[in-house]
Amino acid sequence: MAGSSIMDTLFQRTLEDLIKGLRLQLIGESAFISKVMDEIRREIKSTDPHTKATALQKLSYLSSLYFYDMSFSAFHVVELMSSTRFAHKRIAYHAASHSFNESTPVLVLITNQLRKDLTSANVLEVSLALDCLARIATIDLARDLNPEIFTLLSSSKVFVRKKAIGVILRVFEKYPDAARVCFKRLVENLESSDPQIVSAAVGVFCELAPKDPKSYLPLAPEFYRILVDSKNNWVLIKVLKIFAKLAPLEPRLAKRVIEPICDHMRRTGAKSLVFECIRTVVTSFTDYESAVKLAVVKIREFLVEDDPNLKYLALHALSIVAPNHLWAVLENKEVVIKFLSDLDPNIKLESLHLVMAMVSENNVAEISRVLLNYSLKSDPEFCNEILGSILSTCCRNVYEIIIDFDWYVSLIGEMSRIPHCQKGDEIEKQLIDIGLRVKDVRPELVQVGRGLLIDPALLGNPFLHKILSAAAWVSGEYVEFSRNPLELMEALLQPRTGLLPPLIRAVYIQSAFKVLVFCIHSYFSETEIKASIPCPGNVVPLESELASEMECPEASESEIHNASPIRKQEENFNPRVSNQSFKDLSEDYGEQIDTSCGQTSSLASLERNVFTDESIINTLNKIELAVGPLSETHEVEILERARNLLCFIELIRQYLPNGLIQKEESLKMGEIEAYKIVELMQDAISDELGPVSVTAQERVPLPADLVLLENLADLEAVLPDIQPHLNSLSLGSPFLEETPGVPLPTHQNIEELEPTKESTSLLTEHRRRHGLYYLPSEKNDVSNDYPPANDLKSQDDAEDLVKLTEQSLVSKKKPNHAKPRPVVVKLDEGDLVPTAAKPQSKDDSLSDAVREVLFGNESNLSSSKNKPSDRSSSKNKGKEKLNVDTSELKEDLGIDKHHHTNSSSRKSKHHSHGKERRHRSSSDVGDQRDKNGEEGKKKSSHHHSRHKARPRTAAPSSVTPQTQVIPDFLL
Amino acid sequence: MIRAVMVINTQGKPRLAKFYDVQSLEKQQELIRNIYGVLCSRAENVSNFMEVESFFGPDTRLVYKHYATLYFVFIFDSSENELAMLDLIQVFVETLEKCFRNVCELDIVFNYSKMHAILDEIVFGGQVLETSSAEVMRAVEEISKLETASNSISLVPKSVSSWRSR
C-alpha cells in the first residue's frame, strides 16, 4: 500500500505532464485522456495528500476544459480542503467551486471547514473560502456561515472585506433572512472611504435593485452622494444603473439626479460612462426634454465615430428612444439608413429595427419597397430579418399602418418569390388573416394566390409550402373573384402537388372542391336553370328554405372530420353563425345571394365562354384523373377530401349532359335535382368566414350544472370502443344524451361535434337542448355584419383599443391617399392576445428583510419565522446606532400595524419610512428626539386615520403616501 | 453580473472557461461550441458584440476581443456596461501580459492554475471586484509565494517521513 503510494508520488504525472501529453497526442486525445483518467481515479484515493492534490488538479483541468465528469471526486475534494497546506487547499477549493452544486451530497460536510477558513488569519485562505461560497453557497451554508460573513463585512483588510461584500449577493439570494443581519453593514460600506469597498458595495446594490427597486428607494441619498462625489467610472456606471431603476418610482428623485447625470455626460471622457448616461436618460428620464436632447447629441457623436462598437451601441440607444421620441431617429435618418449596408451584421440589424420604427402609413410603401429590393441583394440571414420585420411591422395592431391593402397583398406575393424567403408561416398567417378581415382586398388576394399557385417551380421549395397552402385556401374560399376558375383548378391539380406535405395537399384538394362547386353552380345558373327560372325571385325563397333546413353550413359532409388549422378556425367560428335567428340568417343569405348574383353577372361575360358543357366535363375528367389515385392513399386528410370530391363528381355526373345529343333533352327534373345539390354545396361553402377572437372560447359561459371530471376513465367504461374525443352527444347516442350526470367532454368538443350533425331535425333538437353552449346572440355582431373597424360606439367594452385606434383615426384621414382605406374587421378585444394580468411582484422574503432593515417595520410577519438567527439579528440591530429608537417608534406604530398585515405592508412601509427618515435627521441633530417622537406620534395617528379610510379603495395608489412621506429625500 | 468568461482559441479549443451560474458539463460544452461557431464566422473590424440570447436565455450579452490566436469572451447581463466589459477584457489581458511577459497561447495553456488565480481576483462570483492590474498582480504573486512556500516546506519532511515509515 505504502509502496504504491510512493511510486505514485515519484512517478505521478503532473498537470504539466498531462498538458504536454495532450499536446503531443501520440495515441490520440481521447485514448490519452481515458488513460489519464484511470490514473487519476487510482491516485485520488491515495493517502498521500500531495498525490491526491495533483490528481485532483488534473481532474479539474480535464473537467473544466475537456468536460469530463468529476462528481466522483466530491469526497476527496472535501478531504483535501482540510489540508493545512495552502497549495492543496487551493486546488481543493477550486475543484469544489467548479464541480459542486446544490445537489452535491457532501456539501453538508464542508460547513465547518468553511467556517474555519473564513475565520483564518491568512487573508488568502479567507479569500478562498469566500470565493467558493460565492459560487456554491446553499441555503444551509448561507444560514450557518452568516455570522462569519457578517464579521468579515467590517474587516479592516480591504482584500477580504470587498470579497465579503461580493459574497453577500449569493447569501441573500439563498437565505434572504440574512439581510436582517447583514444589510446595515452592507449599507455602511457604501460610505467607506476606500473606493474598492464602495465599488463592491455599489455592485451588490446594482444587482439587488432591479429585483425590487422600491425597497432601495431610501438609500437614494447615499447613491446620490456617490453619483456626485465619485471619480471612479466603474462605480458611476453602477450607480447610474441603480438610478435608472429608482427614478421611475419617485419623480422628485428623478428631478434631483438628472442634473448630475447630464453633468457627467458633458464632462467625462470615458465612452462607457457617456453611454451609460445616455442609456439611463433614454430609458428612465424620457420626460426630461433637455436631457434627452443632450443624450441624442451624444448619440450622434457616437454614430459618426469609427469604432463599430460605438456605432452599434448608439443605434441600440436610438432604438430605446424611438417609441417616445421618434424625432431623435428621424434626425439621424440618413446615417441610420446608410448603416443598412454596413459590413457588421449587428449594426445592420439595429439599423433595420430603427428603419422599421420610422415606418408610418405615409411611407410604409416606400420603405418596404426599398427594403425589399435591398433584401434581394443581401445574404439569406439578413434577407429574412428584413422580410420578418416588414411583416411584423405591417401587421402590427391589425394592419394599422396599411391603407392600400391591394398593394400590401401584392407585396406579400412578391416577398414569397424572393429566393431566400423562409417566412412561410408568417406569410400564410397574414394572407388568410387579411382575407378574413378585409373584404375589399379579396379580388387582389385571389389574383396573388393564382400567381403563386400557377407557378410549378414554387412547389419545389419547402419553405414556400405554407404560403402555397394559404394561397390555395384563399383561392378556394374566394373563388368567385377568380378570373378563370378552370385555370385555377388545373393549378390546384397539377402533378407537382405531389411534392407537398399531406396536410397542405389536403388543403389543395379541399380548395379544388370549392372551385368545382363554384364552376358547376355558375354553369347551371348560366345555362339551363337560368333560362327556366328567373334568378333573384326564385333563388331567395329556395335559399331561405334551405337555410331553415340546415342553418349550419358546415354540416355538409365536406366539412366533417376536418383537422387542418384553417378548418378548425371555421368550426370555432361556427356556433355564432348558427345561433342567429332564422330571420337574420335568411336576410343575410338573401343579401349574399344578391351580391353573388351580381358578381356572377358581372363576371358573366368572362365566364360564358368558360363554362361550356365541354369544359365542365373536361374538368370533371381531369379531377378524376388527378384525384382518383388519392382515394387509395394512406394519408387520412387527403383520403377524406379526395373521396369527398370524387363522390360529389359521381353525384353530379349522372345529371350532367353526356354530350351534345343528350343536351337537347336536358331540361328535365334531374337537372333541377342536380342544381339543388350544387346549390346546397355552394351554400355550404360560400358562407363567409370572419376572424375569430382569441377569447371566443372564454366567452362561452360555463353552465352552472356542468361538472367536468378530471378523469374520463369511466367514460371509457360506458363506451369502450369509441375514442373519448369522438364519442359525442350529437352522434346520437341516446344513452349519453339522456343521462344528465354524464360528464361532457369540453366546450371545444361540443362545438366541434355540433357540425357533424347530419339530420337537421336532430340538429335543431340538439340546439334546443344545449342552447346554453352556444354563444349568446348579442355577441354575434362580429360574425356576419362587419362592424366598422374604428367605430367607437361598437367598442363600448374596449376602451384601451379605442385609445389605440384614436391615434390611427387622427392620422388616417390623409387626403393624399387615392383610395380610402378598406374596412378591416377588428374584434372587440379578441385580436389582442389577452395580456395575463401581471403577477404582482410578490413581496419575496429578501425584499421583506431589506424593508425591515431599512424601514424598521414588522409588516412581514410571514417571513420572520422564528429562525435561529433572528435573535442575533435583533441583538445586532440593537447595537446599530441608527436603530436605537426605531423600536420605540415601532411600538407607536405597532398598534395599527398589526391590524393591517401583509396586505397593507406597502402602505405601512411608506409610513414607517417617513419615520425613519425623520429619525435620521433627528439623530443627526441630536437632542430633539423627544420632539420628533411627538411629531412621529402625531403623524402616526394621522396615518392611522388614513389607514382606516383606505380599505375602501381596493387598489391603493402608492402616489399619495409618497408625496407625503418623501419630501426630505436628498435634502 | 458576469455569467461566464471564456478564452477560446481560433481552432475552437477552450483554453479557459468559467461559468458563474451552474451549467451542466454538456451544456458548457455546447455553449462554447455555439459561441465559437458564431465567433469564427465574424469578420475582423466589426463590432465586438454578439447575440447570445438564443444560447444563454434572455437578458444576456456577449462581448469578445480577438487577440492573436485567442478569443476572450465575456458573457454578462444588463447590470454591466458593454464598453466597461470590453475594458475589463483589456484589463485581464494586460494582467496576463504583466504576468507572463509577451503572453501567448502557450502561457495560457500551461498555466491553468495561475489563469484562474488572476481571473478570480478580477471577477468574484460574477461580480467585478478589481479593475487594477497592479492590485491583481500583487494578490496573484502572494498566492504563488504561499503555494511554493507550503510545498517546499512539506516536500522534504514528507518524503523523509514516508521513507522512514516504510
TrEMBL record, chain A:
<dbReference type="GO" id="GO:0006623">
    <property type="term" value="P:protein targeting to vacuole"/>
</dbReference>
<feature type="compositionally biased region" description="Basic residues">
    <location>
        <begin position="811"/>
        <end position="820"/>
    </location>
</feature>
<comment type="function">
    <text>Part of the AP-3 complex, an adaptor-related complex which seems to be clathrin-associated. The complex is associated with the Golgi region as well as more peripheral structures. It facilitates the budding of vesicles from the Golgi membrane and may be directly involved in trafficking to the vacuole. It also function in maintaining the identity of lytic vacuoles and in regulating the transition between storage and lytic vacuoles.</text>
</comment>
<dbReference type="InterPro" id="IPR002553">
    <property type="entry name" value="Clathrin/coatomer_adapt-like_N"/>
</dbReference>
<keyword id="KW-0813">Transport</keyword>
<comment type="similarity">
    <text>Belongs to the adaptor complexes large subunit family.</text>
</comment>
<keyword id="KW-0677">Repeat</keyword>
<feature type="compositionally biased region" description="Basic residues">
    <location>
        <begin position="897"/>
        <end position="920"/>
    </location>
</feature>
<comment type="subunit">
    <text>Adaptor protein complex 3 (AP-3) is a heterotetramer.</text>
</comment>
<keyword id="KW-0653">Protein transport</keyword>
<dbReference type="GO" id="GO:0006896">
    <property type="term" value="P:Golgi to vacuole transport"/>
</dbReference>
<protein>
    <recommendedName>
        <fullName>AP-3 complex subunit delta</fullName>
    </recommendedName>
</protein>
<keyword id="KW-0472">Membrane</keyword>
<feature type="domain" description="Clathrin/coatomer adaptor adaptin-like N-terminal">
    <location>
        <begin position="31"/>
        <end position="493"/>
    </location>
</feature>
<dbReference type="InterPro" id="IPR017105">
    <property type="entry name" value="AP3_complex_dsu"/>
</dbReference>
<dbReference type="GO" id="GO:0030123">
    <property type="term" value="C:AP-3 adaptor complex"/>
</dbReference>
<feature type="compositionally biased region" description="Basic residues">
    <location>
        <begin position="939"/>
        <end position="951"/>
    </location>
</feature>
<dbReference type="Pfam" id="PF01602">
    <property type="entry name" value="Adaptin_N"/>
</dbReference>
<dbReference type="GO" id="GO:0005794">
    <property type="term" value="C:Golgi apparatus"/>
</dbReference>
<feature type="compositionally biased region" description="Basic and acidic residues">
    <location>
        <begin position="793"/>
        <end position="803"/>
    </location>
</feature>
<feature type="compositionally biased region" description="Polar residues">
    <location>
        <begin position="955"/>
        <end position="965"/>
    </location>
</feature>
<dbReference type="InterPro" id="IPR011989">
    <property type="entry name" value="ARM-like"/>
</dbReference>
UniProtKB/TrEMBL annotation, chain B:
<dbReference type="GO" id="GO:0006896">
    <property type="term" value="P:Golgi to vacuole transport"/>
</dbReference>
<dbReference type="InterPro" id="IPR027155">
    <property type="entry name" value="APS3"/>
</dbReference>
<dbReference type="GO" id="GO:0006886">
    <property type="term" value="P:intracellular protein transport"/>
</dbReference>
<dbReference type="InterPro" id="IPR011012">
    <property type="entry name" value="Longin-like_dom_sf"/>
</dbReference>
<comment type="similarity">
    <text>Belongs to the adaptor complexes small subunit family.</text>
</comment>
<keyword id="KW-0333">Golgi apparatus</keyword>
<dbReference type="InterPro" id="IPR000804">
    <property type="entry name" value="Clathrin_sm-chain_CS"/>
</dbReference>
<feature type="domain" description="AP complex mu/sigma subunit">
    <location>
        <begin position="1"/>
        <end position="146"/>
    </location>
</feature>
<dbReference type="GO" id="GO:0030123">
    <property type="term" value="C:AP-3 adaptor complex"/>
</dbReference>
<dbReference type="GO" id="GO:0030659">
    <property type="term" value="C:cytoplasmic vesicle membrane"/>
</dbReference>
<dbReference type="InterPro" id="IPR016635">
    <property type="entry name" value="AP_complex_ssu"/>
</dbReference>
<dbReference type="GO" id="GO:0005794">
    <property type="term" value="C:Golgi apparatus"/>
</dbReference>
<keyword id="KW-0968">Cytoplasmic vesicle</keyword>
<dbReference type="InterPro" id="IPR022775">
    <property type="entry name" value="AP_mu_sigma_su"/>
</dbReference>
<keyword id="KW-0653">Protein transport</keyword>
<keyword id="KW-0813">Transport</keyword>
<protein>
    <recommendedName>
        <fullName>AP complex subunit sigma</fullName>
    </recommendedName>
</protein>
<keyword id="KW-0472">Membrane</keyword>
<dbReference type="Pfam" id="PF01217">
    <property type="entry name" value="Clat_adaptor_s"/>
</dbReference>
